[in-house]
C-alpha cells in the first residue's frame, strides 16, 4: 500500500477515522467487500514477516556472540573487567547488588590488550550474515510501512501490559513551566512541556497518541507543537493522529530524517517559541543522520536548561550508531556536554538499570557509579522513573561521556598511539565501549 494509507488509524486510536491526516496522500478504501479483507490479510502477513525477521536477526546475533566467545582465551587470560564464565559474580560486583536484586547474567568481554585479536573478514562468515540481517531489519523498520505495522503491534502490546505506563513518573515544576514525563510503549518517554501562564504546550516524541492526548486533557492545555528528535516510529508514530486532533499543531524536526507529518523543518541552532517557552534545536547526528535534540531555555524562568535527548544520550548510555560513525557520535555527545553541568537530562528511554549495570563492569571502583546504581535499582524495583539526571552527574559514570578518562581507557585496553589526535583516540574508545555494550545486550 502507498505510504500515505491510513487504514490502520482505528487500530492505533481505538476510534474510527474522521478525516485523512494533513499533508499526506490518502487512499480511500471501501468498508465492506473483498478489498478490506485482503488489506487485513496483507497487514497480518507483513507483521508475521517482521516478527520472523526479528527472531532470525536475534538468533544470528546470539550465534555470532557465542562464536566470538568460543574464540576467547582461557578465563585466566581474560580482561580483569570480565565476569567469571560459570555464572558466579565477583565480590566487587556482589557488593553493588546487596539490595537483594539478582545479579546480572555472566558477561565475558574481549581479551586483554596484549592478546592476539582474531582477524574478521567483513565479507564472509557470521559477521557478514549479522550485518546483512541487521541492515535489512533496520531498513524495513526505518524506511518502509512495515516498520509502522511493527510499531502498531508494539503500541497494542504495551497498552495491554502497561495500562498505567511502564513507570511511575512525577511532573517537574519551575516558575511558569511544567514538564510532564509520559511513559509510553515498553520503555519510551514522551514529554509534555507546558507554559503554565498561558496553558500552551509542546510535546517531545509522541510515541503513543492516546497517552499524550490523555496528558493534554488532564493538564487542560492547547497543543501548539510537536518536536521529533528523529524518524524512528517509536518516537514519531503518533504525529499523524495528534495532527488530526489538533489542527493548528506544527511538527518540527530535521529534513534529513523522514519524519512523519513534518510541517516545519529546523536547522541547527534554530529556536522556536511556544507561548513564553523558547526551545532550541541542536543537530546531533549519529543515531540517525538527522537526529536532533531540543533544549528548553530555563533562564527566563529561573531554572536550569532542559535537554530532551531522544536517542542521543540516556542515563549512563547512548544510542546505537545506526546511521553514523563513532567520530560523528562523539562530536554530538560533546555538543550535549557543552550545555553545562546543571542542564537536566530527559532521555527518550528508560534504560538506566541496564546501562548502569554495564558501566559497572567497566569501572569496578567508581563510587559515583556504585551509588547511582544502588539508587536506580531501588527505583526500578518500585517501577519508578529514573529521570531526570544532570549532565554533570552523567559525566561521573556514563562511559560514553568518559572517553577522555584514563580509567575507562585502561578498562577497555586501549592506548593512544604516537601522533594520534586526542579526539580520534576518544572515538576509538567510544567505538570499543559501544561494541562491548552491543555484546552485553546480545548475550
From TrEMBL:
Organism domain of life: Eukaryota
Enumerate the cofactors the protein uses: Zn(2+)
GO MF, one term, reads: hydroxyacylglutathione hydrolase activity
Where in this protein does the record put region Disordered?
Answer: 1-24
- The molecule here is called PNKD hydrolase
Against InterPro entries, the record matches this protein to: Clx_II_MBL (IPR035680), HAGH_C (IPR032282), Hydroxyacylglutathione_Hdrlase (IPR017782), Metallo-B-lactamas (IPR001279), RibonucZ/Hydroxyglut_hydro (IPR036866)
The organism's taxonomy opens as: Eukaryota, Metazoa, Chordata, Craniata, Vertebrata
**Domain Metallo-beta-lactamase: start-end pairs:** 187-349
List keywords of the entry alphabetically: Hydrolase, Metal-binding, Zinc
Query: Among the entry's GO cellular component annotations, what is one?
Result: mitochondrion
Q: Tell me the CDD domains matching this sequence.
A: hydroxyacylglutathione_hydrolase_MBL-fold (cd07723)
Instruction: Give the UniProt family note.
Output: Belongs to the metallo-beta-lactamase superfamily. Glyoxalase II family.
Amino acid at each position: 500500500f502507498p505510504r500515505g494509507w491510513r487504514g490502520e488509524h482505528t487500530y492505533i486510536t481505538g476510534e474510527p477515522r474522521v478525516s485523512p491526516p494533513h499533508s499526506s496522500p490518502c487512499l480511500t478504501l471501501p468498508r465492506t467487500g473483498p478489498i478490506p479483507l485482503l488489506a487485513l490479510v496483507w497487514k497480518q502477513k507483513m507483521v508475521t514477516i517482521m516478527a520472523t525477521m526479528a527472531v532470525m536477526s536475534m538468533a544470528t546475533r546470539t550465534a555470532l556472540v557465542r562464536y566470538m566467545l568460543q574464540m576467547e582465551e582461557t578465563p585466566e587470560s581474560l580482561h580483569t573487567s570480565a565476569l567469571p564464565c560459570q555464572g558466579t559474580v565477583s565480590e566487587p560486583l556482589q557488593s553493588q547488588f546487596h539490595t537483594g536484586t539478582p545479579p546480572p547474567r555472566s558477561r565475558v568481554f574481549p581479551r586483554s590488550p596484549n592478546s592476539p585479536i582474531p582477524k574478521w573478514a567483513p565479507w564472509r562468515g557470521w559477521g557478514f550474515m549479522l550485518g546483512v540481517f541487521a541492515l535489512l531489519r533496520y531498513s524495513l523498520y526505518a524506511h518502509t510501512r512495515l516498520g509502522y505495522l511493527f510499531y502498531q503491534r508494539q503500541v497494542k502490546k504495551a497498552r495491554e501490559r502497561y495500562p498505567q505506563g511502564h513507570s511511575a513518573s512525577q511532573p517537574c515544576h519551575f516558575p511558569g513551566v511544567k514538564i510532564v514525563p509520559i511513559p509510553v510503549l515498553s520503555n519510551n518517554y514522551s514529554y509534555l512541556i507546558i507554559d503554565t501562564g498561558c496553558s500552551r504546550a509542546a510535546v517531545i516524541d509522541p510515541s503513543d497518541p492516546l497517552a499524550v492526548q490523555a496528558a493534554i486533557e488532564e493538564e487542560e492545555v492547547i497543543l501548539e507543537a510537536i518536536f521529533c528528535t528523529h524518524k524512528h516510529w517509536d518516537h514519531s508514530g503518533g504525529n499523524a493522529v495528534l495532527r488530526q486532533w489538533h489542527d493548528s499543531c506544527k511538527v518540527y524536526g530535521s529534513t534529513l530524517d523522514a519524519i512523519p507529518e513534518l510541517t516545519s523543518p529546523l536547522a541547527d541552532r534554530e529556536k522556536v517559541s511556544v507561548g513564553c517557552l523558547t526551545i532550541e534545536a541542536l543537530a546531533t547526528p549519529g543515531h540517525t543522520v538527522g537526529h536532533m535534540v531540543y533544549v528548553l531555555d530555563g533562564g527566563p524562568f529561573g531554572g536550569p536548561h532542559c535537554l530532551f535527548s531522544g536517542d542521543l544520550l540516556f542515563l549512563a548510555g547512548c544510542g546505537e550508531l545506526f546511521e553514523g560513525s563513532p567520530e560523528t557520535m562523539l562530536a554530538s555527545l560533546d555538543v550535549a556536554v557543552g550545555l553545562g553541568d546543571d542542564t537536566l537530562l530527559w532521555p527518550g528511554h528508560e534504560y538506566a538499570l541496564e546501562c548502569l549495570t554495564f558501566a559497572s563492569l567497566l569501572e569496578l571502583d567508581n563510587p559515583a557509579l556504585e551509588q547511582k546504581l544502588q539508587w536506580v535499582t531501588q527505583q526500578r524495583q518500585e517501577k519508578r522513573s529514573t529521570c531526570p539526571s544532570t549532565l554533570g552527574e552523567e559525566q561521573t559514570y556514563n562511559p560514553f561521556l568518559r572517553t577522555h578518562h584514563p580509567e575507562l581507557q585502561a578498562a577497555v585496553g586501549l592506548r593512544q598511539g604516537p601522533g594520534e589526535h586526542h579526539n580520534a583516540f576518544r572515538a576509538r574508545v567510544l567505538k570499543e565501549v559501544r561494541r562491548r555494550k552491543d555484546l552485553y545486550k546480545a548475550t
